[in-house]
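Box 3.1 A note on notation
Throughout this textbook, protein chains are presented in two layers. The first layer is the amino acid sequence; the second is a token string describing backbone geometry. Keep the layers aligned when reading.
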Amino acid sequence: MQQKRLSILQGMPIFGGIDENTLSYLLSKAILIKLQKDEYFFKEDDLDNSIYILEVGRVAIYRYWQNKRYKLRVLREGDCFGEMALMDCKPRSAEVVALEECNAIQITSGQLAELYQTSPEQYTLIYMNLGREVCRRLRDADTRLFMNDHVNV
């Protein structure tokens, strides 16, 4: 099972360029989360500074606006979520609910801070990769907003 988890991390952009020893270290400190269908990883405005890597299952990300719930996206095995709160230390901007039974790897900012003590280069590379992932998602959101605005004109 550890090898499968290592393989999932190695295939993710946020861990691109991260050496196997560092990934093994993070996995040794990680918390394994198991949720049933319709259970929440977290809700909007929760305080939590962790990133989650989906190992098994699918989740939906929702956001509320004017008392209505909107689905932002569906994520699958190998996807991550929670990176914004990990980076900006603010409350959760959305909620994540399991669409089916899910297993996830939770890595906290505290665990990453421990990594900084032993390998600042690897720590910095992870945060650079996280920044790129946030930018990719922002670009995707911009594109969807642009398409909606121009389709509805």
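The CA atoms of residues 72 and 126 lie 25 Å apart. The helical segments are 2-10, 20-29, 83-88, 109-118, 120-151.
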